[in-house]
Amino acid sequence: MKKKMWALIMSTGLAIGLAACGGGGNDNDNAGGGNEGGGATATNDAEAIFKQNCSSCHGENLEGRNGPNLQKIGGTLSQDEIHDVIENGRPGMPAGIIKGDDADKVAAWLAEKK
């Protein structure tokens, strides 16, 4: 009986944890709204993508919640290193929450935070 209760508690905790960190993929396949020219729109897109997928753990203002503070992450990690974390995850952060061009945009945006 104790094993079944323990398994139930652990699986519930895991499900809640994964849901809080973005849960699944990005249902918005065209987050850029058709404007792929870069500039301010790309920054706004990256911020919107971040808020939709990452802010539940990293905070609306990058201040950190369950996940670390990212306000100055660009001073610690390069754009490629940030992209690698987004793509492959880290302990406590699932891999692939953001994919493709969206991951590229968010990595570039976060790399500017110094």
From TrEMBL:
Posttranslational modification: Binds 1 heme c group covalently per subunit.
Xref: PROSITE patterns: CYTC, PROKAR_LIPOPROTEIN
Keyword set, alphabetical order: Electron transport, Heme, Iron, Metal-binding, Signal, Transport
InterPro entries (alphabetical): Cyt_c-like_dom (IPR009056), Cyt_c-like_dom_sf (IPR036909), Cyt_c_BACSU-c550-type (IPR012218), Cytochro_C551 (IPR054782), Cytochrome_c550/c551-like (IPR051811)
A GO MF term: iron ion binding
All copies of domain Cytochrome c, residue ranges: 41-114
Residues of the signal peptide: 1-22
Residues the entry annotates as binding heme c: C54, C57, H58, M93
GO cellular component, one term: membrane
NCBIfam families referenced in this protein's UniProt entry, alphabetically: cytochro_C551
UniProt name for this protein: Cytochrome c
Originating species: Siminovitchia fortis
